[in-house]
Amino acid sequence: MPGFLLGPPTVPLLGNAHIFPTAAPHYKFTEWARQYGGIYSLKLGTSTVVVLTDAVAARELLDKQSETTSDRPKFYIAELVTQGKHMTVSHYNSTWKTMRKAVTTILTQKAVAEHLPIQYAEAIHLAYNLLRAPQDFYTEVQRFSHSVILSVIYGKRAPRYDAPQTAQFFHVLREWNALAEPGSSVLIDFFPILKLVPERWAKWKRQCMQLRRMQRAMYSALLGETEDRLRRGEENGSYMEVLLGRQKELNMDDEMKLYFGATMLEAGSDTTSIWFQTFFLILAANSDAQKKAQSEIDRVVGEDRMPTLDDLEHMPYVRALILEMHRFRPNNPLSIPHCTQAPREYNGYVIPPGTMIIVNLWGIFQDPELYEDPEKFFPDRYLITENGTKPGVDASALRHNLPFGHGRRICPGIHLAESSININVMNLLWAFDVKPETDAAGNPIPVDTLAYLGGLAPAPAPFKCKITPRTAAKAKIIEREYLAATETFSKFEVGLSPEEKEFVARSRVPMDF
């Protein structure tokens, strides 16, 4: 007979709602995993949540049984804001399948390779801006990641962070992440009576309506710009142009078009920028790993040119550092929840239909049974064993792209994201030293590698560090490459305001090193 999962003790009516963590839930989920095991359950009212802090269980349930575990849980906030059309959080239904087909048809590995020129150019722009204003690194990586995906999806780049359209995008994105944080939004879905609270007494309802208005205005404007460019015969190869040309073939209605772009733009802008904010945070706290990676890059690349993707295969330590970054501080510590559409059994446990399944990536990657000293940033672990685990541990379920999701919900932009990460890690380590800021006496001010903000994808809390060019010669190479990228940029510098055009022109005046 199948059994039932263990979990924290419940109370009548509430289940575990009274102890459900509403901020940074991955910490509490990991604590419970050490107590109740790699798969345990919580009760929220009459509904069930299963937390997986076990990579094997996640593989078996979400990868191998994806036909019945690819749904998303009830997400009332997302319904209010996006009417169920946002691919990341929408249900596993015909609408999602149509949009997913469009993504996989258009966002192929070959298509990603065709967009490498703008990725290289934007990576050089990132390095160039760090020469000019290194103190702005936190927002500059946001500009970079947003500009790459904006160029690829809509054929339009973002030359500066504080341009009105770019600033508006990140404002909307912050509002969306705050509303969608699992710890705060989940209680509304498991206690439906909360949906009946009048809007005047439910601040979150007013926030949802305002966010919907802002989202639709912003994405409608971007879509309209792309359609106008097509009518003028000024295509530049963006994915949205391809989608518009194949709209009938792909069976996409107007709402799907809108949220196709929204989903891709938000995911590409947010996750990559958070990854690089964390990258600077970790480098500032780990000078030995930084120096070791720089030594390897210098040996492979030398002093006279910037790295290319072809160089990475000759850099085992840099590849290990990238993998350790994913493990040490995963972008989505709890991934995005799945939901069962049929009863499942695993290891003798019954999992009923409609169960929310949360993969606790944080708990998996911080498991001392899997990793030696998991709280230490140690890229060498991936040189000792393929998956960074202790020798002799069965790590077959710990695939390298685990942070990108499971089953049919795996991130469709994985190839684009990996290219951006690989190019920039090499560039930034080749070009810069990253150190902690110093106090008035010249003493280093330690950074806190556990200080993160809230939200669906938590970012590091703003911090300070010193970013300086390793040599004047390398700084000159960055400037030379940036000026040489003008032709690549010009293809995507469409619809710029007069202020932005002036800003671009000023940025292309050679610096005095």
From TrEMBL:
Domain of life: Eukaryota
SUPFAM superfamilies in UniProt: Cytochrome P450
Pfam short name (any one): p450
Protein's membrane topology: Single-pass membrane protein
Cellular component annotations (GO), alphabetically ordered: membrane
Coiled-coil zones: none
Record protein name field: Putative cytochrome P450
